[in-house]
Amino acid sequence: MSQDTKAIKPGAGRTRRLTTQVPTSNLENRVENSRTGVRMASDDVAQLADSLAKTQVGEGELSYKGQGLKLNDAQSAEEIVKAIQEFKGLQALRLEGNTVGVEAAQAIAKALEDKSDFQCCYWSDMFTGRLRSEIPPALNSLGAALIGAGARLKVLDLSDNAFGPDGVKGIEKLLKSTACHTLQELRLNNCGMGVGGGKILAAALTECHKKSSELGAPLSLKVFIAGRNRLENDGATALAQAFQLMGSLEEIHMPQNGINHPGVTALASAVQHNAQLRVLNLNDNTFTKKGAIAMAQALKHLRSVQVINFGDCLVRSEGAIAIAEALTNGLPILKELNLSFGEITEEAALAVAKAVEHKDQLEKLDLNGNCLGEEGCQNLRELMQTMNMEDMLGSLSDDEGEPEEDDDEDDDDDDEEEEEDEEEEEDDEEDEEEEDVDEEEENEEEGEDEPSKPSQMSTPPSASRPPDVSSFLCFPSPDKLLRLGNKRAELIQQQVDVSNVGKTVEAFLKISSVYKEDDPEVKTAVLESIDAVLRKMFSLPSAQTFSFISSLLVMLGLLKSEDKVKPVAVVAGHLQCLEHAVKQDYFPREHIAVLHAFMARPNKSLETCVSARDSLRSTLQRLQPES
Q1: Which residues have a Cβ under 8 Å from the Cβ of 97 and sit 6 or more positions away?
Q2: Distances from the Cα of 611 to the Cα of 56, 573, 598, 615, angstroms
Q3: Pairing verdict, β 70-71 and 99-100
Q4: What confidence category does residue 39 fall into, taking pLDDT thresholds of 50, 70 and 90?
Q5: Which of 20, 104, 382, 475 could form a disulfide with 53 if both were Cys (CB 3.0 to 4.6 A apart)?
Q6: How far is Cα 93 from Cα 89, in angstroms, rounded to an integer?
Q7: Average pLDDT, the chain
Q8: Residue 91 binned pLDDT confidence (cut-offs 50, 70, 90)
Q9: CB count, 10 Å around CB of 606?
Q10: Is the pLDDT of residue 443 over 90?
């Protein structure tokens, strides 16, 4: 290297990116860069560019970034090939912003065959204007060269190439090879992979992890970027399995992939196994309540997350509250939270704001584009101000105002699919019940056809039958509950499907509706039955505890639901039994603060039982953990 052309040194662990011109001729004369700012002749500029292109810049990086080169054949790639061949210790090659044909790729691949130090492929936007059929063979050639060279890749960036599933097939062998056992960053943004490409990619990563693990050094991918690829649920689910297997991810970027709650739930299950996760970007997918609650549960397992981007994901109010709960006791080093454009109402937004109060490293909270209304926006700003965090709150200029009453109707396609799935499940259950009823009726009819025998005993129509649990839960009354006998709690517990959150909430409300403070026998029967049901539900390994709280708040009319749910008419017994439950050892302490926040706010649904509400609120205040 000449003394006049100084190498660019990397700073703070990053390789300085230097864009050079395509070498056109050898440097014959040195170009003196005068401090007096003497204007160079155009020939001198070209010669200097040529010199820089031949220089080993940065950490072994050779760059042709953004040159707009049309490399159609081997001849057009001659200068690049020569530069690669002459570059000793080449570690990185930047070809972004050019267009490389099959023959040119083969020529470049040939030059890479002996570059055993090679680590970084910066090859985004490299096939502009090419037929999709040209891309797989070009990638195959380049991948085969790296495998043959014994390269150990750290970065593979093929973003913005729109190569579809066939393009993924073009790098499949490379991803499965020893060259990728050391891969740390995989960038495939805006490649049009689709569901098929996502599955191929997931299988390749899984195979890579398997083979590398057998050699004692498992694949430890740190950064995964695959936004705008239409992965949808199946593609996301396949990748989630690979993520869970690796357990090494620090950044996941998968925005705009058409992922709904099944795919989000699969990703939620996977991310909790990646303990070092710092950035989670799922912007512009569709969580809805189910996906948001699942993701909130996953966040409780993570301590290193700094950036969460769930903007434009329709997390809705119940999902936002679940995320707020995860924030309250976790995510200690969170820096940025984006829950914008999620159809979140004021109560949920305030819960989120309250949850970040003690996040010392927080830099930005984005709740723009939600449904707070003018007063809600003002209340949010005031809350942030009282916490000395007003500078961290993003703009609220795109707030969509308070939701209309008829906004309960779900216009979202995904919500309709969720409802259809639930309706199908209910229809199946009803069909089964109808079949059982039909069988019973047929048996009864067969019995009626047979002549009655004198020895048979029959119950007179006027005789009262002993009540059963189903009868009590359908039409609850204190008398029916007492007539169930001393084993009533056990019988009710057996009858209620506690794995179903909705049915458990319904049972709680039915039982508590007959509570009588001034009748010791009824009071005891009610509380024993509630304890039996809730203890069993909360003790399940798969218990969706927040879903229970969320559904309960909806049924009490304290939380607006995204589903078509009509709240019950709240009676004092509902709140008195809830007060009893929160004091029991089975009740999760982490839900106390959420319940208190809702009980502390004025609400018309509780106006008929103010005394019970105040008593419950006082108990919740006393039970809250000290901050």
Answers
A1: 65, 66, 67, 68, 125, 126, 128
A2: 79, 11, 16, 6
A3: parallel
A4: very low
A5: 20
A6: 12
A7: 83
A8: very high
A9: 23
A10: no
